[in-house]
C-alpha cells in the first residue's frame, strides 16, 4: 500500500530524514526516541512536507508530488499528535464536520459511534470537555469517516489513561482486521511490535533497524534503542 523509498526531508535548510525507507505492510510501526524524525516522516507520507529526495508510493502510484487533499481523496487519513478536536463543538458536531456531504454520512457516523461507545455516550458533550483519551478516539473516528485505506497515527496513546490506551490498541488491531492499513508512530514498543507486520527504528533521521514485527522483535528493538 504505502511505501517510502530513500526519503530525504526536513525544514528549510535543516535536513531531518536521511535516506529513510519504509516498507509496505498492514501495520507498520515507526519507532525511535524524541526528535528522531518520526513525525517528520508521517508528514512526508501525507504530503505536508515535500521530500528533497526519494519516492512515495501509494497503491503502486508515485504520489510524491500530490498535495495532501489529493492523497486523502486516494484513501489516506492522518491523525496528528495531540488529540485534536474542535473543542467548542460537540462530539457529534465534530463527526458531522467530516461526514456531512458524504454519501451515507449518517451511517458512517453511526459506525464510529458503535466502534467507540464513549463517543456515543458523550455525543452531545463539547469535545473540550472530553478526556484526552476520548478526544483521541474522536480524532480517530473523524479520520475513519473518510473511509481510508491507510490510517496514519502519530502517537495515539501518548498521555492517555491506561484503560483507553488498551481500547485504542484494540481498535488498531481491529482496523487491520477490517483491511485498513495503519502507519503507526508509537512509544509503547511492546504493543507496536505485536501489532506490526514491519517496523523501522529511526535515530537522528536514519533507519538503524528494520525488520518484521512480532513480539520476538521486542528485545532487538529495546537493545537498538538502548532502553
Ligand atoms: N516545524 C518544524 N520546523 C523546524 N524543525 C522541526 C519542525 N518540526 C520538527 N523539527 C525538528 O525535526 C527533528 C525531528 O522532529 P520530529 O518531530 O520529526 O521527531 P519525532 O521523532 O516525531 O519526535 P517526538 O517524539 O518528540 O515527536 C527535531 O530536531 C525537531 O526539532
From TrEMBL:
Superkingdom field: Bacteria
Xref: SUPFAM superfamilies: P-loop containing nucleoside triphosphate hydrolases
Gene3D superfamilies attached to this UniProt entry: P-loop containing nucleotide triphosphate hydrolases (3.40.50.300)
Family annotation (InterPro entries): AAA+_ATPase, ABC_transporter-like_ATP-bd, BCAA_Transport_ATP-bd_LivF, P-loop_NTPase
Name assigned to this protein: ABC transporter ATP-binding protein
Keyword annotations: Amino-acid transport, ATP-binding, Nucleotide-binding, Transport
KW ATP-binding (keyword) present: yes
Family note: Belongs to the ABC transporter superfamily.
Annotated GO MF terms: ATP binding; ATP hydrolysis activity; branched-chain amino acid transmembrane transporter activity
The ABC transporter domain, residue ranges: 2-227
Stored Pfam families: ABC_tran
Extent of the signal sequence: none
UniProt record, GO biological process: L-amino acid transport
